[in-house]
């Protein structure tokens, strides 16, 4: 069976004037109406989102607030056991009926400086439209600072109300322990003027290999007009290394060629935002 990975590291910046907002959360506390859940049936505090009044550790030490206001904090998930475990939190209902083009903005921090396992823990954000959870963003890269994410969610056929679900996926002790993830300053607002249309892809799937090739199907980011490429190689390869095999996505598909028989591959969908910026 092929292992498929989706590289979703979207940092899309906006410029312009004040933007209409219908939800802003700077975390003086975690709202009591938000629902916590986990996939490992654990009652441990490490299997829930916590306020940064308890300080994240290792590479995330000291990253307790992006807002900068008195009494504001952030929320975070501890990379400690239990493993494996998906740790989720779902907001209460958010009324977007006044927005023409809804968008999501938040800041996140993740920087594993203690092990050689780059990536590992993953943050995923989904939008609930009343019936289905739609994945709109996911990230697993490391960076020594807060990162701003903006996501156009206007492609989702939303009712008047939506909800957000944020999930940290922890995999095992070796890879996850040193990898706390912090989130702050969540906003649902009108799509800002000047918003980049270089949106990260939201899903990738690869069909059956036939004659040394296979078709990758990629769900492109909302209203993205940038070039999306599938980078692929034998399982465990570094997608940032030179010489990797690539295939350009056209109309949502790409052909992966020269595949060796009885081999396992990793595939990454990457959108190019410029000469040195990717999502």
Tell how many strands the DSSP assignment holds. Answer: 18
Q: Work out the helix count.
A: 1
What is the CA–CA distance across the termini?
26 Å
Helix content: under 10%
What does this structure look like?
This protein is an all-beta fold and 279 residues long. It has one helix and 18 strands. The strands form four sheets. Strands 1, 3, 4, 7, 10 and 12 form a six-stranded antiparallel beta sheet that branches. Strands 2, 5, 6, 8, 9 and 11 form a six-stranded antiparallel beta sheet that branches. A three-stranded antiparallel beta sheet has the order 13-14-17, with no helix packed on it. Strand 13 and strand 14 form a beta hairpin. The protein starts with 20 loop residues before the first strand and ends in an 8-residue tail after the last strand. The N terminus is likely disordered.
Index terms:
6-stranded antiparallel beta sheet, 18 strands, 279 residues, mainly beta
Helix and strand arrangement:
Elements: E1 21-25, E2 35-38, E3 50-51, E4 75-77, E5 85-90, E6 94-95, E7 102-109, E8 122-128, E9 133-139, E10 147-152, E11 161-170, H1 173-176, E12 181-190, E13 203-206, E14 214-219, E15 228-234, E16 245-248, E17 253-256, E18 265-271
Antiparallel strand pairs: 1-12, 2-5, 3-4, 4-12, 5-11, 6-11, 7-10, 7-12, 8-9, 8-11, 13-14, 14-17, 15-16, 15-18
């Amino acid at each position: 069976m092929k292992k498929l990975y989706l590289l979703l590291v979207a940092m899309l910046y906006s410029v312009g004037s004040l933007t209409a907002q219908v939800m802003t959360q700077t975390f003086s506390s975690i709202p009591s109406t938000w629902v916590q859940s986990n996939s490992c049936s654990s009652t441990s505090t490490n299997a829930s989102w916590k306020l940064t009044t308890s300080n994240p550790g290792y590479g995330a030490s000291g990253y307790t607030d992006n807002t900068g206001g008195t009494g504001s904090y952030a929320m975070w998930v501890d990379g400690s056991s239990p493993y494996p475990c998906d740790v989720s939190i779902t907001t209460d209902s958010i009324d977007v009926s006044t927005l023409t083009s809804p968008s999501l903005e938040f800041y996140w921090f993740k920087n594993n400086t203690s092990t050689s396992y780059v990536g590992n823990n993953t943050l995923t954000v989904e939008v609930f439209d009343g019936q289905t959870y739609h994945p709109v963003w996911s990230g697993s890269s490391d960076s020594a600072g807060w990162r701003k994410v903006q996501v156009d969610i206007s492609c989702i056929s939303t009712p008047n109300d939506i909800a957000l679900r944020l999930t940290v996926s922890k995999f095992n002790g070796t890879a996850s322990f040193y990898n706390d993830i912090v989130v702050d300053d969540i906003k649902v607002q009108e799509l800002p003027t000047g918003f980049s249309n270089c949106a990260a892809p939201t899903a990738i799937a690869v069909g059956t290999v036939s004659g040394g090739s296979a078709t990758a199907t990629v769900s492109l980011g909302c209203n993205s007009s940038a070039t999306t490429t599938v980078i692929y190689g034998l399982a465990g390869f570094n997608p940032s290394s030179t010489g990797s095999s690539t295939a350009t996505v056209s109309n949502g598909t790409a052909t992966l060629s020269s595949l060796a028989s009885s081999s396992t591959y990793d595939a990454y969908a990457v959108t190019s935002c410029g000469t040195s910026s990717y999502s």
